[in-house]
Structure formats: C-alpha cells, structure tokens
Specification:
By secondary structure, the chain is α/β, with parallel strands linked by helices. About 35% of the residues lie in helices and about 20% in strands. The longest helix is centred in the last third of the chain and has 18 residues.
Length: about 140
Amino acid sequence: MQHATTIAEWMTPMPHTIGQEQTLSAAQAIMDKHEIRHLPVLHGGKLVGLLSERDVGLIGALNDVNPDVVKVEEAMSAEPWTVRHDTPVTDVIREMTRHKYGSAVVLDDHGKLLGIFTTHDALQVLGEILDSQRLSQPPPAR
C-alpha cells in the first residue's frame, strides 16, 4: 500500500461548523447529532476559533452559566492549531502528539477552511499502516 503523504488525503473534508454568535446549546446539539467532538468556529466565513466538546463541558460545569445564553465565542479556543492542506500527515501527527492537540484545522493557501484532522483520523492512518505491513509480510513459520 502506498501511504498518502498529505493531510488533505486523510482529513475529514467540509466539517460541520458553527458561528461564533451561536449558543453553547446549539453547539452541543450539533456535536451530539453528528457524534463529533470539534467544531471550527466561523465569523463571516472566516475561521476565528475552535470549540471542543471539552470546552463546552468545562463552561457548562460552571455555576450560573446558561448554555442557552452563553455564546460560542466565550468558550472557544481563539487560536486553533491550523495546518496547510499540503502538510505531510506524519508531520501533523507528530505535532499533535508532541503538543497533545486533539485536532488540526486544515486550511487552503488563502486561509479557507477545507477540513479537520482529529485523533480519530490519526488512528485510522495508524490502522491502515499496520494493516498494510501485516499484509506485506509473509505468514509466521509454524
């Protein structure tokens, strides 16, 4: 098997997103419906942050916080880790491991959102590599 070399070949394209002015309740509903843990946050079509399921949980655990009122922009990470679409997938995985990032937001050359690459995607890469190694090796001697 020939391994894909760029993150664009492994990312989840066209991820679900949310506007920064939306509520945490709206964000949680999207995450629950689509069984996802990361939402790129947009304003005017531009990436302005990233909201994780953990962010929602941390803010939601605070007393006197109403998720129907609190806006996404109050809970999001304002500087998500981004990578270009042509970044080698191995480089992205190394950086995610080194810094304990849960995801990488993938952008084109002009800063437009193309996709997201999560730890789940990284595990799929690992699975394919291990499967290809297993298939390319002769069976063990008996």
